Amino acid sequence: MRVLVVEDEQLLADAVATGLRREAMAVDVVYDGAAALERIGVNDYDVVVLDRDLPVVHGDDVCRKIVELGMPTRVLMLTASGDVSDRVEGLEIGADDYLPKPFAFSELIARVRALGRRTSVPLPPVLERAGIKLDPNRREVFRDGQEVQLAPKEFAVLEVLMRSEGAVVSAEQLLEKAWDENTDPFTNVVRVTVMTLRRKLGEPPVIVTVPGSGYRI
């Protein structure tokens, strides 16, 4: 899952990003609304965690732009105000969910994951295919009933492949969904991660390489 965190309190923004990355999400961070609009114009995000009171361009205007563009991106709006009127206003602007500060990080994670499931064809919370069971909320993976321990990026790649439901996913798509914008696009990190993931999932291999196209399960 690719997430953009937009928050002008840099310590909070960086802490949120670090926590989301530990949950195997690819996260970019910006600290004002103008930078958010720039990133949204370049990258495809599943979820934007958007502070409402932003400098340069207000968070409300960022949200309106996402709606205006007809993007499938879901918006989780954050604000220091928990008044009902503020929540209603944020949702009417186009936010998909609303979370007042201060918030429990576990709730933020759950809301981001719930919104991520709504960016495409609805899928069940637990993904199952080819003997693999993947639970994004618990960050657990089982193959034929045996638990498989995966590093965050391995988990992220497997989740993208599982969500594709048998369709081929290119290396570029995996790079976009599982890594942030600071990753060198010419790196071989996708190939290396897929190789390690195959080894950990065991025999017979379930990740198929489609020459010239990418990977599928």
UniProtKB/TrEMBL annotation:
Keywords assigned: DNA-binding, Phosphoprotein
Domain annotation OmpR/PhoB-type: ranges: 124-217
Source species, domain of life: Bacteria
Domain spans labelled Response regulatory: 2-116
DNA-binding region: 124-217
Alphabetized InterPro entries for the sequence: CheY-like_superfamily, OmpR/PhoB-type_DNA-bd, Sig_transdc_resp-reg_receiver, WalR-like, WH-like_DNA-bd_sf
Modification type 4-aspartylphosphate: residues: 51
Protein name: Response regulator transcription factor
